[in-house]
Design brief:
The chain is mainly alpha-helical. The chain is built from seven helices and no strands. Helix 1 crosses helix 3, helix 2 packs antiparallel against helix 3 and helix 4 packs parallel to helix 6. The longest helix is centred in the middle third of the chain and has 25 residues.
């Protein structure tokens, strides 16, 4: 976030390039974690509809960064993108747009499986349970909650 210089605000500059121009030589991955915390605080202050565009811009930037990254950094970007997608789902859920919330939460779940992060997967399944309950689908809410609990309490496999 921060103040973006006017020359980097052009709609023709990709979010990843815009991020790189603001970051200079700093590692964008290390920058994106605290940005997420700022966006969470922003949601608490101004509401989800005001936070969504910035979150989606970060998701796009992370996707673009993934195209240029390999190894451990790429894995970190996948995890970070899953966290941003989950947060985007939360924002839409909070705004009452349940269909779009399902979309983003499903995208987050897909990435949590991709990186084999059981804790994140269990958390996202619990979020899907909440969403199903709010949509009025109690059977899915119970099934997702049970699956999240089973996953969270299952012994780790190697």
């Amino acid at each position: 976030m921060g103040i973006t210089p006017p020359e980097t605000r052009s709609p023709h500059i990709s979010p990843a390039r815009r991020l790189a121009s603001v970051m200079g030589d700093a590692n964008p991955i290390e920058h994106l974690y605290p940005v997420r915390q700022v966006l969470i605080a922003n949601d608490n202050l101004v509401g989800p509809l005001n936070a969504i565009p910035a979150v989606q811009q970060q998701i796009t930037a992370i996707q673009q960064l993934r195209q240029e990254t390999r190894g451990a950094d790429r894995h970190q970007l996948l995890k970070l993108q899953a966290e941003y997608r989950e947060f985007c789902g939360w924002l839409y859920h909070d705004a009452g747009d349940f269909r779009t919330a399902q979309y983003w939460t499903d995208r987050a779940l897909e990435l949590s499986h991709t990186i084999a992060d059981r804790d994140m997967t269990a958390y996202i399944m619990a979020r899907k349970s909440q969403l199903a309950g709010d949509i009025g689908d109690p059977v899915s809410a119970i099934d997702m909650a049970e699956a999240a609990g089973n996953l969270a309490h299952a012994p780790a496999t190697q």
